[in-house]
């Protein structure tokens, strides 16, 4: 039997790997500071660039992550993100930072980022993190301050503050300037307009009453 040459195998797997985890497009210049004054008459991939001669150091700095987010909501979490508004110099650089505040027993419910992988670092408290593969295998770890954990691109993941008495804090780096986020429960039970009852009843094997209760709990 003829075997595939190693070089061919190598290039085939390289193509698979590269095709599967494409980052944001590379910048074509040193920087492309987001010009927030240009009205959105047309849509481009990213934000239009400010004239480079108008660049200032202050466009590369932000204090957006310095303040604790308000975790007074049913899930008990708040995510604060850098973006092209609060950090215009990050436009086209392919990254976002996130500050994640968790109330006691607070959870960032299972969600995914369609355009980014995420590396999270626990700064305060004890955080149970986990992600689910496309084969529904669950990987979990308990993080203490200084520990970091990777959520692979687009996979469903969560963070949970296991301490019922104190808050927890984490920061994350994400590999896109616009990672996107879909919270699984809201993307099914709190859509606009509502997903048809028959779809949800069948998909989750629940009654109309149970569906109404879940919808109400999630503000759908
Ligand atoms: C997150 O915190 C900010 C700042 O305190 C607040 O304006 C926002 O409403 C909070 N978001 C949620 C979902 O609670």
Task: Summarize the topology.
Blueprint: H1 6-20, E1 77-81, E2 96-102, E3 107-112, E4 118-124, E5 127-132, E6 138-143, E7 148-151, E8 156-161, E9 168-174, E10 182-183, H2 184-189, H3 197-204, H4 208-217
Antiparallel strand pairs: 1-2, 2-9, 3-8, 3-10, 4-7, 4-9, 5-6, 5-8
Bound molecules: 2-acetamido-2-deoxy-beta-D-glucopyranose.
Key words describing this protein structure:
binds 2-acetamido-2-deoxy-beta-D-glucopyranose, Germin, 220 residues, 2 domains, alpha+beta, 5-stranded antiparallel sheet, Jelly Rolls, 18% helix
Average pLDDT metric: 91
Structural class: alpha+beta
Element-by-element helix/strand order:
HEEEEEEEEEEHHH
SS summary, helix count? 4
Q: Return the CATH architecture of the largest domain.
A: Sandwich
Biggest sheet overview: 5 strands, antiparallel
Bound molecules: 2-acetamido-2-deoxy-beta-D-glucopyranose
Strand order of the largest sheet: 1-2-9-4-7
Instruction: Determine the fraction of residues in helical runs and give it as a percent range.
Output: 10-25%
Shape designation: globular
Kindly describe this structure.
Helices cover 18% and strands 25% of the residues. With 220 residues, the protein is α+β, with helices and mostly antiparallel strands. It has 2 domains: 52-179, Sandwich (Jelly Rolls); 190-220, no CATH class. Strand 5 and strand 6 (138-143) form a beta hairpin. The mean pLDDT is 91. It binds 2-acetamido-2-deoxy-beta-D-glucopyranose. 2-acetamido-2-deoxy-beta-D-glucopyranose binds next to loops.
């Amino acid at each position: 039997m003829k075997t595939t040459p190693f070089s061919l195998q190598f290039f085939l797997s390289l193509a698979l790997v590269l095709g599967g985890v494409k980052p944001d497009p590379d910048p074509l210049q040193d920087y492309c500071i987001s010009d927030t004054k240009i009205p959105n008459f047309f849509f481009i991939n990213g934000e239009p660039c400010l004239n480079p001669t108008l660049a200032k150091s202050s466009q590369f700095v932000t204090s957006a992550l310095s303040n604790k987010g308000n975790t007074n909501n049913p899930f008990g979490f708040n995510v604060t993100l850098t973006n092209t508004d609060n950090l215009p110099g990050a436009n086209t650089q392919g990254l976002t930072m996130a500050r994640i505040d968790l109330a006691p027993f607070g959870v960032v419910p299972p969600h995914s980022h369609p355009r980014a992988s995420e590396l999270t670092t626990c700064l305060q408290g004890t955080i149970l993190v986990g992600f689910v593969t496309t084969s529904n295998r669950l990987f979990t770890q308990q993080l203490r301050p200084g520990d970091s954990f990777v959520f692979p691109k687009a996979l469903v993941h969560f963070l949970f503050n296991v301490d019922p008495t104190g808050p927890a804090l984490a920061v994350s780096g994400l590999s896109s300037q616009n990672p996107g986020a879909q919270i699984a429960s809201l993307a099914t039970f709190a859509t606009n307009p509502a997903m048809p009852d028959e779809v949800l009843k069948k998909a989750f094997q629940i009654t109309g009453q149970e569906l109404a209760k879940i919808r109400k709990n999630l503000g759908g």
